[in-house]
Each structure stands twice: as structure tokens, then as C-alpha cells.
Amino acid sequence: MGEIEGRVEGHRDGHGFVWPDDGGNPVYLAPQEMRSVLHRDRVRVRVLRLDRRGRPEGRVLDILERRRTPIIGRLLHEGGQWLVAPEDSRFGQDILIPKNAIASAAVGQVVSVELTEPPSLHSQPVGRVAEVLGEIDDAGMEIEIAVRKYEVPHRFSPETVAQAAALPDKVRAADRRHRVDLTDVPLVTIDGEDARDFDDAVYCEPFKRGRGKSAAEGWRLLVAIADVSHYVRPGEPIDEDAYERATSVYFPRRVIPMLPEKLSNGLCSLNPDVDRLCMVCDMVVLADGRIEAFQFYPAVMHSHARLTYTEVAAILLNTRGPEAERRADLVPHLLHLHEVYRALLKQRANRGAVEFDTTETQIVCDDQGRIEKIVPRVRTEAHRLIEETMLAANVCAAEFIASAEHPCLYRVHEGPTPEKRLALQAMLKALGIAAPLSDEPTPGEMQAIAMAAQGRADAAQIHTMLLRSMQQAIYTASNSGHFGLAYDAYTHFTSPIRRYPDLLVHRVIKALLAGKRFHLVASEKTRVPEVRRGGKVSHRAVKPMSQEMALWEATGVHCSANERRADEASRDVEAWLKCRYMREHLGEEFAGTVSAVAAFGLFVTLDAMYVEGLVHITELGGEYYRFDEARQELRGERTGIRYAVGSRVRVQVSRVDLDGRKIDFRMVRDGDGEKLLARGERLRTPAGGAAAELAAVRESDRQSKAATRAAKGKAAEGRSRKPQAKRPAPKPRARR
Description:
single chain; alpha+beta; CATH 2.40.50.140; five-stranded antiparallel β-sheet; 32 strands; 29% helix; disordered C terminus
């Protein structure tokens, strides 16, 4: 049926898939076929048949390329043999370690292994310990594992270290040439309390053009961005390492930076009370939020203050409070920033940009790197103010480059695919949301649905459903607009310290200002890292393009894939920390909300912990539950009890799988173990509203208990007359 070349992706259950190089459908590999290959090998397979689920099933013909990167796992000693159990369950096989190849590692330690013999149909892979990372409980070990598991570059090359050390400690006189002097302008940075690198600074003042009644009123908004491109030149060691990383990776209490610390936290960071080089987007914003004019230019700035979101929010809330008194000279400028932000919001509403109400959380760790608490991340007016001003600068950058018809990396976000649109329509109809959705959905339609969901118990889940219906944002040279923000053209300009695409945008803008063109050069470190299924970068169909455009497109794929990889690594660490945190709460009960429903059970997010876990369908009681995909609910056929997204429940922490990053809950039951205390929702609400429904539930409970007591009495009477054979306990259904 044909031969296919592609990359192997293992599965923790022993089978695997081959993802074709051309982006086609994956080919299933049975466990027997997986014995001779490892996760991430490149292979050639022949499709033999379609399995019972309609998937193409293949046989491995040839192994084209073995994975070369080390494998992370724990060293074990079993049956007289040394072996390493990979931390990534997708490998599916333990690695044998000869006694003379364990280095200085001890049993139970986390190690990095290099393969010396690949697996075959009749033998396991063999390797040697290349690095001993330490004990599994060491502080920060989860991060050390993640950066190696996801192959995140975390060490700068010696050439990069040497080049960074040779950079100056401050702005020199030669660096100031041909730059606008803005050192007297009270630009300020506004960031989180734990921020260490400062990409952006802002300033705003009232603006009036013309005289009399026809005068145009508005604001002059300055967004100054760190001029990384002045110090990081194409082809130099720092640039090569930055390109390979493509983004900084953020973990709780630690950052893997894209640039060496001397640049990211020092020379490029817009720290207070020191001169810094910057690229400025200077805008005129009218009262209705339209950007009437803008210009870009290189400048020298002097940050007048390092402000936090909390501090600015307090000043905007109370201009006579203690925070405002400490920053009295800056309060008028902050009020102007707030005014231009309110104007920009008008344009957001006019465009129909989508804004979702989802809860973001922040992990607070102790000195040992363990979770102390998980708290919701509160978005203040200060957060939104900075977000809107950065959006304005980004869209100006995109318009400037597009008008010059210069190649660039755009930030593209496309709307729902036809399949996702149909699925979303079915779900909304089942949930009783009548907001229209056309064949070609617009951002305004999606925003109308989000507004229609406000006030509902499942509003947050509906917003998440809308978000997941849209495609992931990517970097690409082919501009097709940003659906969520409702922009025809959008790019990233405001974070060159932590994002490589922003650095490229700066280089393009500088070239255009000088009347030149920026020519992208291929890097030897270009590679597209593998990320888990669901986070893969889609292969977009593009028109035939020139060699230069093809290089820009390849760079976009590289940056998008590294962004996904960084997200995966961060989520993996957070999941590990949450599992470790919940191990200390085994057996405890918590209130929660159903956040997702599947055929095999309910995902519940705890109110107090902001941690999600699974209630398997076997834990829902002694009846058959049917899964309604359109309504996203499980419904009991006998009692009519339903569990839908948004249902309130009470659960107990029953199991924590640290290796699998999974948490299991069970529903809390009453004293006789027959009925769930947290029932979910009834299919029909009795006449009379909530009070009548509560009375009906209580009556049902009373009848259920009476029937249970009667059944127990009959069972006891039967046992006294005739001994009954002991029935084996039913086996729990396997998790999917």
C-alpha cells in the first residue's frame, strides 16, 4: 500500500506512530514493531492494512536515523542487572547499563544515558551513564529533567560566553551616534514583581493638532523597546545560540534565557536610572483609539522608574494614596497612559477582537523549589494598559513592514477550521447558546458568543471551548492576519530580549529606515524540535515562493516549534510540581468544578488548589453513564443524574502518579456508600425553581435510603436462610 518516511512517536502503552515527513496522517506501529525502534527515530515503513479503527498500520522496513540525544531516567538495579527507566514514558523500553558504565551513579539517581547499542527485535537497547544529575527529590531536579527531556538548549557555547564577556558594561559615546536623545523623557517600565529583564518602557502625553473646533485631540504615545539588534549581529556566536533557542523558557523560580545574562538582565534591559539604547514606536492616537500616525527611530533613553503592575493599579485606583504620593512626579503621565489605554479599548471593541475570561494561575514556591501555594493571577488595569500599548506598537510594526513589501515573520492566528466550527456549533446548540456562527466565522461573532456566556456557571469552560476551536498562533512569512485580535497584519516587535522573531523584526525595521533591505542568512543550527502530539506545528499549504521567502518560512517554522517546545517543558514542570504538591493531600476532600468531560470520566479543577485531576467513570456510582459529546456531559441512564462542564462536585484525592503527571480523584460518598453526595445536575428542574429542586433531591435521597435499607434487610434475611457464594470484586476499567 506504499512506503512512507517519517519520525517515530512512542506511546506509553507500548505502541507508536510514524508521523510522515510530508505532514500526512500518522501510521500506527504495533508494540511488536516498536521493539526495534525508539521514540524520535526516523524510519521507513510500509503500510500493510487499515486497523479496526480505520488507521493505517505499518511495518518498519528501515531505520534511517537513530536519535542521538541522551535519554534521561532513573538508575535501577534489578535481578542483578543495571538499567535505566526513561523518564519519558514514550520510549517504552528500559536501557541496559553494563556494570562498568554506570560511572559514579547510585541506585535511584537521575542520570543522562547515551546509547551504545540500539534496540532490536530480540534485545533491549544498551547505554552508558554520561551525566549524573542527582537525586529525584533534589531542589530543581524537575527542571533539570525537563530541559533535557525536551532538548531545550540550556548551556551557551564557549564562543558565546567569551563574546558576552567582551561586551561593554554601559552605553558608550559611539553607541549614541545617529540616535534621538530621549533621556529627559520620563519613560517608565511596568512589569511584574518578579521580572528581571525589562524589554519595554512607555510614556504618554496629550496631543492636539490644529486650532479651533476642527483641532484633532488625542495623545502622543511612545513605546520604547530594548535595542538588542545593536549588540547581537547576524552570524555571530550570540546570534547563533539565540536562534537555536528562539525563545526564553520560563519555569517556576528559574528562566532559561535566550540571551546571556549580561545582555538580558544588564546591557539590553531597560533598568531604572541608567542610559539604554532602544528602538521607539512613536504614535499619535486619536480620541476614538485610531492610530493616526506613527514613526520608528533608534534612540537613547533613561528609565525614570521601575514600576510594578500592583503599584500602578493602586495609583490608578487612588491618586491620593500612599503609592501615588511616592510617585507624585509620575502620576500625571500614568493618568495619560490610562486615558490612551481607554481610547485603544474603543478600537478593540470596534474591531470585534476576541477577549476570553479565563483564570490564569501562579505557582508560589518555597526556598526548596516546592509549591507553597497556587494562586489566581489577577489581571489589573495596569496589565491591560501595557498589553494594549504593546499591541499598538506591534501592529504599527507589521503595517510599516507590509507597506514596504519587505519579507518578515508575521504572527498569524487563524480562525476555526470547518471541522472545529461544526463541532463548536453543535456544542453551543446543546448548551442553549443561540448566538449565530456563520460558515466563515468572524472575531466579532466569537466575541458575541463569549459575551452571551457571561453569568453562566460554565462561562469559563465555554470561553476555553471557544479558544480551543481556533488554530494555534504561529510565526510565518505568509501574512493572513490575526483572527483573535482582529488585525489584518500583526507581528511581534516588543520583546527582543526573549523572542527571536522580535529581534528579526527590529533588524528589518532598521534596514528599512536606512533605505536598505535585510537579507536573512540560513543558520547551521536550524532544526525543528519534536513536541508532543496536540502541540505540533502544522504544515501550512503555501504558494510556491522564492528562495528568500522559503528561508523566512523555514525560520517561522523553527521559531514556532521552539515556542511549542518551551510551552511543553514549562507545563511538564508545573504538572510535576502539582503532583508532588498533591501527594501531601492524599485522602483529603475538596470542592471543585467539572472542567472537561470525556467518555472515560470527568476532569475536575479544585476550587482551593487550582489543580485538575480525573474522576474515572468507574468512580461515579453503580450505574451506566452515557457520554453526550454535543452537550459535553455524562448522564446516568437509571437516575438521570448528569455531570456536565461547570457542575459543582466534591471529591477526594485518591491517587497521584508522579511519573505519569496524573492525579486521580474519587467522588465523596455518604455513610452507607450508596449515593454520591455531590450529584451533579438533574436533567429537568422541578417547577418552583431551586427550592423545589432541592426538595425533590431530598425526597429522592429519602426514597433511595429507604430502598437501600429494605434491600439490605432482604439480603440479610436471604443470607440467614442459605449461604451465598462470594462474588469476586469487579476489576476496574483501564484508563484511556
